[in-house]
Amino acid sequence: MASLTVENYVKAIFKICLGEDSPRATTGQLAAALSVSPGTVTSMLKTLSESRLATYTPYEGVRLTDEGNQLALRVLRRHRLIETFLAQALEMGWDEVHDDAEQMEHVISDKLIERIAARLGQPQFDPHGDPIPTADGQMPVLPTHSLADCPADTRFRLARVVDQSPDFLRYLTQSGLHLNVQGRVLVHRAEARAITIEVEDRQITLGHEAAEKLQVAVGADLAIPDRVRVIPGPHFASQKTRAT
Ligand SMILES: [Zn+2]
């Protein structure tokens, strides 16, 4: 098993590339994402290159090899399954599960994680709506839209929360916005950057900044799908996300 640091670097590179829709991450982006100095990043990138997990080109950045991509997908699978387990089996809130998953993702065995996946019924999405890579490195895809792009009268289901800071998640819970809740856009005032939605007989007005952090499924995807399409990794379409 790769070291904790290696796994965190690989995961960070993967998420930056996915979020930016770019094949490479820069040392600056990595230093910011991991809260370390650029010098620390540079020396770690040498280690990753030597282990054939990534290739580093000075002034251009780092990209994961197929092996690096597969490792990143395995770490994401562990992380997201642990979050799902903590939420479903231990009834922890979606604002509580991330930090423990961040620790456990590096130590849990493949055998145990697959037992958890089986017990949970092979879930495809975690408590924040993030897709859980399959054991063979494929990523489920569900087309979603930013709530901030939805016109009045759109019926929607909250499918994914991009900002997973505990404060924002608690605000959503207090507003009655939990994952998979269905609602309707009542008023969308683009000029005021405000959107009013109705969810379970409750009206909530959100600024665009908050609405942009909510990904919704509409139309045929309104109902919770049994199984969604998976696209083979590691080269799948990107969806922006800020945490896991
Ligand atoms: Zn997480």
Structure description:
- The chain is α+β, with helices and mostly antiparallel strands.
- The longest helix has 23 residues, at 66-88.
- The chain has helices at residues 4-20, 27-34, 38-50, 66-88, 97-104, 110-119, 166-174, 208-211; strands at residues 54-57, 61-64, 138-140, 145-146, 155-161, 182-189, 194-199, 202-207, 214-218, 230-232.
- The radius of gyration is 19 Å and the shape is globular.
- The chain has a six-stranded antiparallel beta sheet. Strands 1-2 form a two-stranded antiparallel ribbon. A two-stranded antiparallel sheet has the order 3-10.
- It folds into three domains: 4-68, Arc Repressor Mutant, subunit A, CATH 1.10.10.10; 76-136 and 227-238, Arc Repressor Mutant, subunit A; 145-221, Ferrous iron transport protein A (FeoA) (SH3 type barrels, Roll), CATH 2.30.30.
- The chain binds zinc ion.
Q: Total number of helical segments?
A: 8
Largest sheet, described in full?
6 strands, antiparallel
Given the helix and strand composition, which structural class is it?
A: alpha+beta
Integer-rounded radius of gyration: 19 Å
- Number of beta strands: 10
As for the CATH topology of the largest domain, it is SH3 type barrels
Give the name of the CATH superfamily of the largest domain. Answer: Ferrous iron transport protein A (FeoA)
Alpha-carbon distance between the two ends: 21 Å
How many distinct domains?
3
Low-confidence stretches: 235-242
Lateral arrangement of strands in the main beta sheet: 4-9-5-6-7-8
The percent range for strand residues is: 15-25%
Q: What is the assembly state of the chains in this entry?
A: single chain
**Which percent range fits the helix content?**
25-40%
Text of the CATH class of the largest domain: Mainly Beta
Taken in chain order, the helices and strands follow as HHHEEHHHEEEHEEEHEE
